[in-house]
């Protein structure tokens, strides 16, 4: 994997501490931002299809293709995004049940959105997305793209949809491997670190917002204040510092899976700077103990 996009709220695109960090944002909140400025790092945009289809069972409540094309054009010009997803139709069985359509119809409509958007403006940086549920579905979707005149191997990036909610399963790993073997540069949507550790080397890129879910369960460990708030935040679900610390740990874990615990803890030292002296001393002792245990285990191995 060459690019790991951190899923963030769109307001963070313009924060200086995120300069140079690849970021992934969803069109729903992004389209509500009045002012956009040049991104300080690579940015990719999700269309918000999962929200549309799981809430409404259709794209009828989302932007029309023309409206979405105009939004993407604005992101291309003002933010300088690398790519945006089409208004795709994911194929999880409960989503297909919600729309009342078939997997193959979802696949047709996903290609239809790609072609519509490119037809409106051929210069839009829309990444095609392969959808399906069974491996054979995905293989068929690749053939459908071919029949529509779209060579997925020639695309800089191609999303692979409907995988994130079953990541970590053998089925998902096999699927990603089989599709990557077609020579397609794949983007994995919404992956967690464990899922990436398994198949991350088959992706050209992936995105993750897993930090926000982890942060929800974590009491605030720093004194970050959201702009305009009176006190420090209550948990880490919306904390830029936490997100950045999580990203460093994630990258380290992906780079060196065997030594991951040690690296995680060494990187956690970064977070110490935000604690009180008493908290720092306690944390440092905890880390020393952990590091010693891990070193012992390594010696024995
Ligand atoms: Zn925080």
Description:
With 301 residues, the protein is α/β, with parallel strands linked by helices. The chain has a domain of 206 residues: TIM Barrel. Helices cover 48% and strands 9% of the residues. Helix 7 links the parallel strand 6 and strand 7. The C terminus is likely disordered. The structure holds zinc ion.
What is the share of helical residues?
40-55%
Strand order of the largest sheet: 4-3-2-1-8-7-6-5
**Helix and strand sequence:** EEHEHHEHHEHEHEHEHHHH
Structural class: alpha/beta
Q: Termini distance?
A: 29 Å
Query: What share of residues are in beta strands?
Result: 5-15%
CATH-scheme architecture of one domain: Alpha-Beta Barrel
User: Would you tell me the overall average pLDDT?
Assistant: 87
Quantity of strands, as a count? 8
Ligand species:
zinc ion
Largest sheet descriptor: 8 strands, parallel
Radius of gyration: 21 Å
Broad shape: globular
State the main characteristics.
301 residues, TIM Barrel, 8 strands, binds zinc ion
Helices, strands, pairings?
Elements: E1 3-7, E2 23-26, H1 27-30, E3 43-46, H2 49-56, H3 65-79, E4 83-84, H4 93-99, H5 103-120, E5 129-130, H6 135-147, E6 158-160, H7 170-180, E7 186-188, H8 193-199, E8 205-208, H9 210-216, H10 240-255, H11 260-272, H12 277-300
Parallel strand pairs: 1-2, 1-8, 2-3, 3-4, 5-6, 6-7, 7-8
Helix pairs in contact: 2-4, 3-5, 5-6, 10-11, 11-12
């Amino acid at each position: 994997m060459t690019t790991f996009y951190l899923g963030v709220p769109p307001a963070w695109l313009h924060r200086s501490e995120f300069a140079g960090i690849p970021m992934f944002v969803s069109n729903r909140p992004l389209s509500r931002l009045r002012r956009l400025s040049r991104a300080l790092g690579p940015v990719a945009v999700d269309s918000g299809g999962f929200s549309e289809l799981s809430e409404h069972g259709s794209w009828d409540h989302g932007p029309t293709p023309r409206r979405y094309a105009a939004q993407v054009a604005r992101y291309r010009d003002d933010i300088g995004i690398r790519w945006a997803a089409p208004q795709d139709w994911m194929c999880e069985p409960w989503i297909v049940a919600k729309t009342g359509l078939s997997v193959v119809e979802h696949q047709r409509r996903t290609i239809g959105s790609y072609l519509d958007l490119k037809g409106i403006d051929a210069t839009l940086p829309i990444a095609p997305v392969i959808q399906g549920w069974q491996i054979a579905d995905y293989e068929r979707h690749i053939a459908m793209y071919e029949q529509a005149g779209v060579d997925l191997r020639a695309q800089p990036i191609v999303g692979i949809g409907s995988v994130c909610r079953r990541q970590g399963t053998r089925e998902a790993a096999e699927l990603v491997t089989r599709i990557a073997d077609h020579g397609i540069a794949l983007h994995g949507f919404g992956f967690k670190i464990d899922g990436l550790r398994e198949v991350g080397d088959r992706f050209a890129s992936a995105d993750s917002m897993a930090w926000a879910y982890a942060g929800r369960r974590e009491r605030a460990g720093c004194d970050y204040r959201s702009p305009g708030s009176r006190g420090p935040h209550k948990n880490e679900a919306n904390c830029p510092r936490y997100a950045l610390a999580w990203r460093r740990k994630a990258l380290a874990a992906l780079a060196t899976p065997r030594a991951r615990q040690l690296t995680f803890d060494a990187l956690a030292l970064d977070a110490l700077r935000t604690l009180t002296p008493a908290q720092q001393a306690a944390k440092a002792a905890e880390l020393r103990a952990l590091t010693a245990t891990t070193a012992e285990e390594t010696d024995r191995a």
